[in-house]
């Protein structure tokens, strides 16, 4: 594996850990590497049940990645209303939704050509 892929794998692992610590649900990883003209390599998509939980997931992801990898997002957008928060780590973009907003925008459907990995949770 190249160094960049190892970095992506480590980043994804820490993002998932951050999501799971505050019980984010319906976690999917979309691998966009084989699709032309994409802006990143991976999307990680999950949802929370309320504005409070969405903000908690975002905060947990940022704290976990910062603590373990000494990395911070390039950009964060949507924290004000916390219905759809995007966390941009350049090669990995995290989408944290409230369930009804996720269903409306259907990111997985828009990126249907991507390889999707569903992350099983125990809660």
Automatic annotation (TrEMBL):
Domain of life the protein comes from: Bacteria
Compartment list: Cytoplasm
Gene Ontology terms describing biological process: cytosolic ribosome assembly; negative regulation of ribosome biogenesis; negative regulation of translation
Keywords of this entry: Cytoplasm, Repressor, Translation regulation
An annotated Gene Ontology molecular function: ribosomal large subunit binding
Entry-linked NCBIfam families: rsfS_iojap_ybeB (TIGR00090)
Subunit-level organization: Interacts with ribosomal protein uL14 (rplN).
Function: Functions as a ribosomal silencing factor. Interacts with ribosomal protein uL14 (rplN), blocking formation of intersubunit bridge B8. Prevents association of the 30S and 50S ribosomal subunits and the formation of functional ribosomes, thus repressing translation.
Similarity remark: Belongs to the Iojap/RsfS family.
Protein name from the UniProt record: Ribosomal silencing factor RsfS
Source species of the chain: Aquimarina algicola
